[in-house]
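G., before I forget:
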Amino acid sequence: MAINAPRGTKDVLPDEVYKWQYVESFIRRWTALFGYKEIRTPVFEHTELFQRGVGDTTDIVQKEMYTFEDKGNRSITLKPEGTAGVVRAYIEHKLYAEAQPIKLYYLSPIFRYERPQAGRLREHHQFGIEAFGSYAPSIDAEIVDLAMSLLNDLGLKDLEIHINSIGCKKCRPVYHKALMGYLADRLDQLCDTCRSRYDKNPLRILDCKEKSCQAVLTDAPDIVDYLCDDCKKHFDSFQNYLSAMGYKYEVDSRIVRGLDYYTRTVFEILSTDERSPGTICGGGRYDDLVEQCGGPSMPGAGFGMGLERLLMCMDSQGIVIPAPKGPDLFIAAVGEQAYNYSIGLASMLRKRDISVEIDHVARSLKGQFKYADKLKAQYVLVIGSDEMASGYVSCKNMSTGQDQRMKLDNIAEQLHSLLH
RNA sequence: GUGGAUGUAGUUCAGCUGGUUAGAGCGCCAGGUUGUGGCCCUGGAGGUCGUGGGUUCAAGUCCCACCAUUCACCCCA
């Protein structure tokens, strides 16, 4: 009976991990430059956290969560997004009592029960950041800047920044009313899902891709016209800061995001490249979330970035991630006595910071060379009974093909000078 | 959740309108003189043709179901 990986999951095999490590190293570099510290939270949380945080009316909570009961009858859910858990930790450990803002980042698997397709998995991985404790639009701009700096540094081209403001507790209800008023006598032209969204979350209708709905929406009231003075000022400064950083962006009043916790700023970074999976980064501000989850009234802002999509995007743009080097040295031993000696030599050389490979399946000398070649070893040392007796070995440079005699007793020093 | 496509060796695929021991490239292993790789040549290992039913004298090839993969929609990273 063959067991395979569950639907929508993927193994990252050794011949590919280096790509992940490469991207992760860029992430660590840029988060450090911006002063974001890593936080690691559990892969699962109490289901209630996501219901309260992400929002009961969202698709994510309604139909995409991996929820189960544990042996203590607790309802547990695998993270369907990264923010809620970080917010919970921020509250639980009273990080709000420290100097603000608290700037955090995470790398985490994310689980959503969906039908897999290109750029969409049931388990995917996100790099995300969260900045708590500041209402200032400079934070909003900073997180976009961090995302873009990273993406640009990785070599990505043709990126677009789409931004919007969806208001706050004060002004959003006013817009809701206006939108609902506009849609009231056009309900019959909307699709089924949008009709059901009308009462619960009318904002989401703006996001609908149905042609009929889009047609209805062309003359719908624009949220930007309904922002209160504070939100308007916030949005303006945010844009000014983005410009000051040298970014081009597009105000897209139809971005509303699928998570209920956003207030004011929402944004997406997407690739316009045909073969790319669209949005690779999405985020925004969530000024009420901490309070909603049982903490003090503290603002926040952040984003999530899909690593699989990022990798996909880099791949489709032809960005080559440098493959790791092979071992410094391969020791090819001939005969049992020489092999015995070579095992000890390999152990010693590794302790001297030289990466060494040696045969473990009893290959012939020729086989060992072929294997060394496959491993991309830089040098091959041949040791047989002659070498054991004379105390000299031959060291072959695998890229030039040249042999050179080396004395065994200070071999580590000689190798070090060869390796640079 | 809705709709389409696909499922043959480790891998990429071929296998014509159903007909005898299922093929190729790459990869893997071994040889091409006695202790030397990358190229070339030769040979070898490796498949219950996704699974289970059905039609037929006969099925990898036709039909059905299931499973899986993949693409689009929905949603999102």
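Chain A has a mean pLDDT of 91. Chain A is about 40% helix and 20% strand.

More on Monday.
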